[in-house]
Amino acid sequence: xxxxxxxxxxxxxxxxxxxxxxxxxxxxxxxxxxxxxxxxxxxxxxxxxxxxxxxxxxxxxxxxxxxxxxxxxxxxxxxxxxxxxxxxxxxxxxxxxxxxxxxxxxxxxxxxxxxxxxxxxxxxxxxxxxxxxxxxxxxxxxxxxxxxxxxxxxxxxxxxxxxxxxxxxxxxxxxxxxxxxxxxxxxxxxxxxxxxxxxxxxxxxxxxxxxxxxxxxxxxxxxxxxxxxxxxxxxxxxxxxxxxxxxxxxxxxxxxxxxxxxxxxxxxxxxxxxxxxxxxxxxxxxxxxxxxxxxxxxxxxxxxxxxxxxxxxxxxxxxxxxxxxxxxxxxxxxxxxxxxxxxxxxxxxxxxxxxxxxxxxxxxxxxxxxxxxxxxxxxxxxxxxxxxxxxxxxxxxxxxxxxxxxxxxxxxxxxxxxxxxxxxxxxxxxxxxxxxxxxxxxxxxxxxxxxxxxxxxxxxxxxxxxxxxxxxxxxxxxxxxxxxxxxxxxxxxxxxxxxxxxxxxxxxxxxxxxxxxxxxxxxxxxxxxxxxxxxxxxxxxxxxxxxxxxxxxxxxxxxxxxxxxxxxxxxxxxxxxxxxxxxxxxxxxxxxxxxxxxxxxxxxxxxxxxxxxxxxxxxxxxxxxxxxxxxxxxxxxxxxxxxxxxxxxxxxxxxxxxxxxxxxxxxxxxxxxxxxxxxxxxxxxxxxxxxxxxxxxxxxxxxxxxxxxxxxxxxxxxxxxxxxxxxxxxxxxxxxxxxxxxxxxxxxxxxxxxxxxxxxxxxxxxxxxxxxxxxxxxxxxxxxxxxxxxxxxxxxxxxxxxxxxxxxxxxxxxxxxxxxxxxxxxxxxxxxxxxxxxxxxxxxxxxxxxxxxxxxxxxxxxxxxxxxxxxxxxxxxxxxxxxxxxxxxxxxxxxxxxxxxxxxxxxxxxxxxxxxxxxxxxxxxxxxxxxxxxxxxxxxxxxxxxxxxxxxxxxxxxxxxxxxxxxxxxxxxxxxxxxxxxxxxxxxxxxxxxxxxxxxxxxxxxxxxxxxxxxxxxxxxxxxxxxxxxxxxxxxxxxxxxxxxxxxxxxxxxxxxxxxxxxxxxxxxxxxxxxxxxxxxxxxxxxxxxxxxxxxxxxxxxxxxxxxxxxxxxxxxxxxxxx
Length: 1123
Prior knowledge:
This protein is α+β, with helices and mostly antiparallel strands. The chain has four domains: 55-501, Amino acid/polyamine transporter I (Up-down Bundle), CATH 1.20.1740.10; 652-741, Roll (Flavocytochrome B2, Chain A, domain 1), CATH 3.10.120.10; 757-965, Sulfite Oxidase, Chain A, domain 2; 992-1000 and 1021-1122, Immunoglobulin-like (Sandwich), CATH 2.60.40. Helices cover 42% and strands 12% of the residues. It has a five-stranded mixed beta sheet with strand order 1-2-5-4-3. It has a five-stranded mixed beta sheet with strand order 10-9-18-13-14. Strands 11, 12, 15, 16 and 17 form a five-stranded antiparallel beta sheet that branches. Helix 2 (38-47) runs parallel beside helix 13 and helix 15 (323-355) packs across helix 16 (373-383). The N and C termini lie far apart (116 Å). Residues 650-728 form the Cytochrome b5 heme-binding domain.
């Protein structure tokens, strides 16, 4: 049967001949269009399938494995792919047939294995299409849902439809459309990656003005470290690497539609080296230098979550505003490119399977323009599976669909290597040498054996991680089969084929293979003549052209192709014995084989040199600092020093060097005055170490001004012990550090409403005017502001909350985790500063330390979030039977503020302690804790920590000064130096009340210096209305408010205004408003006094003298107003 007859028979559906005596001969499938040009092939090879695996998935790998394992694993996988693609290139250049590597498995390994691997590969791409469409839609949420609320302004399904239509339109133009689109999109990806590499070097060297980290170097390889999670970290990165490299083999699949595969395939194959070196190894190496592997956002980097992409994150960390959006667009383009490739990969494989009788014959149909239209339609219908993700359980269904072919890449790559090994054996058995090949794999058969072995290692690593995942979780059947389901599927395909065709033999008879069948337009004489002419032409090239050719395609400078390692000697001897069977061997003089070595089979020295460079760079960066730092450290003292008064040399330090020792440095430095201090040891032993660390790399003075405790000589004397030098005179202006080099910690604080009464600007502390306290709910913009430091600036998608249990176990949550995993709870609760009404205590009793609040350091709001007890339970804490040693829940904020509450309050089902992300129905404003704050109803507001980032279950209170010192109260006799250790931290608030407004017409506020009665402006103004609030902590309800118009000699009861709030919670967490009417005739000259009583009959003291304390806390005496 000749070639054409065999192909026609196969299309009619007859199974291929599979006897152990004969070869599974492959005919030329010439119905497909052959319009792919060399530039198409090379761009497919360089950037064809670069997508979310590299741009997003590498983030989770960096987090789980660290920069060391990330680079090493990608190098191993890249080397494996280099070997695999070279093996495939050799086969594809010789046999450019449809379904290439599937056909190679059928022909050289076993028809059953080719059948199983081919359908698994096709299924992989069919499922990848809807996955990539969904991913592309999610990437758009970077713009349509900037706060990562999970509710984008445009539904993801809309974008899925748009991208699916776009992919359909591309298919209309056939393989030419695919090639042109991949050329353009691939070019965009190439430019983006090259741009990132350049910018990454600049960022690492400290060349970005907006990057406060300065010079980074190899800091992140030392801290948090190069390798994370040990052997599991090493294994886990393989999974991402395989996904990222997926599609590299498409260049071989495209061989059947290349215009000149003999020339295009070798060139495209050699481009893979640059793809691996430039796009993966070098870019990921730089990524590990400029993004810390312990960044909590990286753990969410997967799929279309581009806001967590390490590439996007690198720009955000450097303070570059525009590039994150630009690179997100590149990621979107990359994902669309992969979706386009998935249609091509699946349709060409299925068409080839059907054409060889291994599928329904209708799937083999190709139209007049060379398009396998039936399979294309089916592939596009698979794209509609993307809408499954819109269902409530859609992600679960989709995970299992992806699991069906999750190991497809390893099976495909391993099969290519094994097919190449078997091919070479058959090639030699027919008396051929590597000189007879249009293109020989660079590392020969040895490379294919190594590639096959590495594929097996990757499968083993995947098996290990599937069974024993990172984090120590117990083995899970669901998790295991989602990762490894493809293995039994492939085995089932293999066995089903054997059973159906009753072909029990394993493998094929290599000696019966007709080695020249399937070659396109093969003419031995013409081929050899063409090869000779090419070699002669290249020998005449000028040196510059040889260098360019070598750098682009790794051609030998003096020979046409770089050959692989020599084949095993036994196979060479077999080729001699089989030489008489080959017609072509009789037509051509034999080359001597006695040495067993082909002079062109040695690996190119440039590969060896490149491998040394790639392996050496991470090692150099890891082991040491830059030569510039070394030279600076070894500079002679007389070059950079001057004499101090005691005659000892004093080092002169440039401000740029100080900047390099920022918060992330192992040795943080600060400046005070003209002196420079190394505060490494200070940070560890100082209670405010985290605060002073914020000043590292600049001046400490703006931070110390926040706390008067630092403005003492004894503190300066302690700091002096850490002085290492002074600021170089060249950096001083008028003998001072220039103001523009001192970073203002409050520069990013939000703007506040002009109605707020500001007590301090930095940090901002402002109270609500009395007239604005008349509503039951205080509006967000007028809610009192109490800040101890700067307002942290953090993106919602970057936020992480860590729960640390008493046994040291930790669990981390994103804001999205909290929103989706736990029931939402809404509670209306009052917040009151312990210093509210401190001004009144000062006026009555004398000096107090702290902000002089009037009556406005209080507010009532509706808070929405999740119960802390639910989160603790999910984190593994036994809330119903807590350990005896677990006594406190400590809260730590992003700006280093800390506080704690008794554990029983935190886990009490009726305590209503929340982790709140909404305030009065909208996202919490930055001043009030965005993106998450603790709400502890009934307790002093100081325990409701804003910007909470860590919750720790402990046997002791928070160690912060705000728990151990500031928020305490003392007896009137303890004076200005109380014993802080003997007083308990304030928790539940005592009962209090205040007058906020006195109105005739119009309203007047108690916070104003004078009260006026405008009774002449209103007919019914014979009554003056006095209003105010009353509140008691601990959830105790206000039962009575007493008011006096004669300074307490006589009393009457005010009217309690019914609350109009829902979501009151388990107890009376809200304030109570009251009002009282006074005849206008009795109003002038009176002294108003008000006091409240709660349900436990606690009431307010008459004067502040009996509760005076130097901190001015809990100023709850009767509130008096002289009219």
